[in-house]
Amino acid sequence: MEKLFSYGTLRSKEIQMRLFNKLLTGTPDQLLGHKLKSLQIEEEFGMADYVVVVPTEAPSDPIHGVVFNISSTDLAKVDLFESNAYKRIQVTLKSGVVAWIYIEN
């Protein structure tokens, strides 16, 4: 199993059903030393507003999210779902859990 930290759309039950055909269970956690930045991504029917993680100067700046346990197959689905505005890296969360996260590319 892989650990995935979600701070945005992947927490949506609708998105989970569409992407994985199931609901995920997760645990609240935080990523420190980062903040969310607005991002516009061109989609099929125009521009859409999203957020992306970027580092900050303050190591205590938190991003609240959820850690999900997912299969490597499901992680590959997320790679396809996320636009090329994001890249996937591993981070250590406040709890000490090491998880994948999508940040600004």
From TrEMBL:
<dbReference type="InterPro" id="IPR013024">
    <property type="entry name" value="GGCT-like"/>
</dbReference>
<feature type="domain" description="Gamma-glutamylcyclotransferase AIG2-like">
    <location>
        <begin position="4"/>
        <end position="103"/>
    </location>
</feature>
<protein>
    <recommendedName>
        <fullName>Gamma-glutamylcyclotransferase AIG2-like domain-containing protein</fullName>
    </recommendedName>
</protein>
<dbReference type="InterPro" id="IPR009288">
    <property type="entry name" value="AIG2-like_dom"/>
</dbReference>
<dbReference type="Pfam" id="PF06094">
    <property type="entry name" value="GGACT"/>
</dbReference>
<dbReference type="InterPro" id="IPR036568">
    <property type="entry name" value="GGCT-like_sf"/>
</dbReference>
